[in-house]
Hints:
Helix 9 packs antiparallel against helix 10 (237-248) and helix 10 (237-248) crosses helix 13. The chain has helices at 8-14, 27-45, 75-90, 96-109, 115-128, 131-134, 143-157, 161-180, 216-230, 237-248, 309-325, 343-356, 365-376, 383-390, 394-401, 406-435, and strands spanning 51-53, 58-63, 68-72, 263-264, 267-270, 273-279, 283-289, 303-305. It is elongated. It has four domains: 8-90, no CATH class; 96-201; 210-401, hpI Integrase, Chain A (Orthogonal Bundle), CATH 1.10.443.10; 409-440. It has 16 helices and eight strands. It is mainly alpha-helical. Strand 4 and strand 5 (267-270) form a beta hairpin.
Amino acid sequence: MSKNLISQNEISSFMPALGNDIIYLDGEETSKIERMIKEKYVEAHHSRDISFLENKNYWRTYTGTPRKEVTRRNREDLIDYLYKYYKARENETSSLQEVFNRSQGYRLNILNRSENTVERDRQVFERFYDKNFRMKPIGWFNDEYISRYINKRSKELNPKERALKDSLLILNRIFEYALKQEKIISYNPVQCVDIRNYYKKCDSTVKSSEKKIFTIEEIEAIKARIKAEMSGKQYDIIGYAMLFSIETGVRVAEIPPLRWSDITDKGIHIHAQQRMTRIKGKGRTFSELSYTKNERLHPKGGRFFPITDAIHDILDNVREMQAALGISSDFIFCDEAGYWLNKETYSQRLRRMCKRMGYDITNNHAFRMSLNSNVLIPLGIPVTERAYLLGHSVEINERYYSHMRIESLNSLKELLNQSIHARSRSNLIRFESKKIPQAL
């Protein structure tokens, strides 16, 4: 048997338990065991067919990506080659970080994930798993070590439950890639880790409504501030976009792709979004996706939002300003050259304005949540219709978008007071009626 080719552990894994008995194997029996070990190992690591071509009188299979043809005159020689091939890959000093990098390339180029998604996963991976963890060989890990590490990091970072789930999901994806695509490990240890054991270490605090939505008074103050800032500018398309967002609750990425052709008799057709991609050495690029955030996997052709009087006035003002300045563009919210609005520039302007006004809430998303809680719910609009107007599911609307307004608390106080007074009067009447003598 070749030196260092078959390890003692491999022999032990295929031999029956012998207790303290001593056995002696001759050369032929040892060769049979070696052959069996190689066959089992190749069977576990090689997923492609091994076939015999009679017309050419040799055995053939394929390895690698892109695939490479491998042929041998007899099957044993082909098994020997495959065994050495996968052993060499298994023994490579691929760290968890290196396998993660390759898996990211696979997701980007083969699975067509966006560069933003890949970049976000990298940030999560490197934030939760420290360098010492990431640089360990991937074959070194087991579920006990991973469990102890997650327990330790959960205590240190006190992450949100969602962040903990995301970090373990990414780790699981790395090991699945190493197992199924590269075949350099024999099992995925993350599958044995029960994440529920670590939820108690997570930050379970929930932001109050005041920290998520604007009050009606704050919305009115923001509108007034936007109009005041617009008055000093010849053409302030970002100001108009902010006013439009307040009235419609659109996502920030849904504003730039809106075209005049999207203004229809049914309402405003919201069916696209702007994607921003960061490329190292090249900065940011912007492209248009033909679906909204909630329709990436299940496209439905977008949604329509009714054109209220306030929305109609905003659009009319934009159209008149563009006509006066000779701006010709398909996009509703465009610069003077007709180029569509940059969602990052919009977000920065909104954030700076809100901070100047002394608000902790500074994002466009708050307009969506405020519209839902301040306008749609008080109007009695059913949750199914609220979800449609904002472009998400009923569950998402009820769980994340429906918040108690401060104004609602005052109304509830009045209703409770009325109910208490009514019950008191009713009890008093019943009590007095008992005191009235019965007629003879």
